[in-house]
Amino acid sequence: MDYRVYYWDIPFRGVFVELLLHEVGASYQRRDASEIYPDKNLQIDCPGMAPPYLYDYGIQKTIAQLPAILMHLARKYDYLPGSAEGQALALKVILDCGDVLMEVTRFYGLQMWDKAAWQTFREERLSRWMQLFEKTGSDYGLRQDRGFLLGASISVADIAVAALFGTLTHCFPTLAKDLNRHAPFVAALVQRVEQRPVLAAFLAQQRRKYGRDYCGGEIGRSLQKVLG
Ligand SMILES: N[C@@H](CCC(=O)N[C@@H](CS)C(=O)NCC(=O)O)C(=O)O
Fold first, then answer.
1. Who's near 125: CB < 8 A, 6+ residues apart?
2. Residue 70: Cβ within 10 Å count
3. CB–CB of 102/108 below 8 Å?
4. How many angstroms separate the most distant Cα atoms in the chain?
5. What's 40's DSSP letter?
6. Rg, Å, the chain Cα set
7. What's the 221 CA to ligand 1 centre distance in angstroms?
8. pTM of the model
9. Please, which residues have CB within 8 angstroms of residue 123's CB and are 6 or more apart in sequence?
């Protein structure tokens, strides 16, 4: 066994970690986040405020913060571009994904969505986020039928973008047309990544288990209400 992943029974942030682990062929056991959060938060290495957590058997340490987990795995399995610039950009893409998650959930449910607020967000910010990923991909050679977000080979950025937009459009199918309109190359990339055999098998099994559940709590219900 290579890793343990601690997360809730939802895809949201956990799917980023699990997709990358499947992509690189690492073995892991999924554990409920409540085994660490909140009571044992301070007992892990570099205490993390909230899940996901990754326990790495190789170093016998637990890592928190999704971007740190993805960068750790990406470095280990050579899923980063070679140049310093490319590596900074990969981290930037991961952080962008995290920002989108925060915005979609209104900073973890600080406020609930209503139809008007959602519509404004969808038209003004979500569309811009999509265009921004599309611009990055286009700049690095992504096309409708080929390529990756940051160059000629797959990197952690492709996995992150698939985890973000693949999950969003699966859970809220109406958003597929937004992605196709604002980021057609990214939409095609997400499909190509999701169709990689090892990822397709994992996603099929996860989607059977969770259905269209995206994130938890009241904000999850609020999203379903405006988008369902
Ligand atoms: N910045 C952290 C955010 C972690 C986070 O917000 N986790 C959520 C689930 S996705 C949670 O369980 N939050 C509970 C809390 O913050 O108390 C990361 O990227 O890993």
1. 103
2. 30
3. yes
4. 49
5. T
6. 17
7. 18
8. 0.98
9. none
Distance 141 CA to ligand 1 centre (A): 33
Give the C-alpha distances (Å, rounded to integers) separating 66 from 7, 12, 20, 34, 45: 11, 11, 12, 17, 15
The residue to mutate among 39, 66, 93, having the most atoms of ligand 1 within 8 angstroms of its beta carbon, is: 66
Cβ–Cβ under 8 Å, residues 142 and 149: yes
Cα 49 to averaged position of ligand 1 atoms, centre (Å): 7
How many of the other CB atoms lie within 10 Å of CB of 54? Answer: 26
Q: For residue range 91-122, what is the model confidence (pLDDT) as tens digits?
A: 999 999 999 999 999 998 999 999 999 999 99
Contact yes or no for 132/96 (Cβ under 8 A): yes
The answer to whether the beta carbons of residues 135 and 182 sit under 8 Å apart is: no
Place of tokens 């016998």: 60
Q: What is the pLDDT of residues 15-74, one digit of tens each?
A: 999 999 999 999 999 999 999 999 999 999 889 999 999 999 999 999 999 999 999 999
Q: Give the type of residue at 137.
A: G
66-76 and 84-104 are packed helices; what angle lies between their axes, rounded to 10 degrees?
150
Which residue ranges form the domains of the chain, and what is each CATH number? Answer: 3-76 (3.40.30.10), 84-227 (1.20.1050.10)
Written as one letter, the residue type at 195 is Q
Whether 159 and 196 have beta carbons less than 8 Å apart is answered as no
- How far apart (Å, rounded) are the C-alpha atoms in residues 53 and 185? 32
